[in-house]
């Protein structure tokens, strides 16, 4: 997918990265190769239960990250939340901050700012590199 990585392009990371907020798997084109989805960090492969178990958090924590606009999971055709690996990394970072005593809303804002900074640095580094390198 070629959506921007940064929250700088949209209101939140999720809005900047995911164009299809309806989130059904039917949104993938027929020409997309099955194998490509294994490497696609934006593919919504994980259910809420699996995501919560992997991160060691409750489903309520994942919902709170959605309310705070850090991540916006896609939805399956049945309406169930589906998370990508990228979203799980953001959620893991949020958990680290919350475990250190940071309120959820503040943790989400910190992560959004960290992501914007990383994107700005990436753009600056690409601009500073000579064309052949």
UniProtKB/TrEMBL annotation:
Residues 45-113 form the HTH merR-type domain. It holds the Pfam family MerR_1. SMART domains: HTH_MERR (SM00422). This is Helix-turn-helix domain-containing protein. It comes from Microtetraspora glauca. The lineage of its organism: Bacteria, Bacillati, Actinomycetota, Actinomycetes, Streptosporangiales.
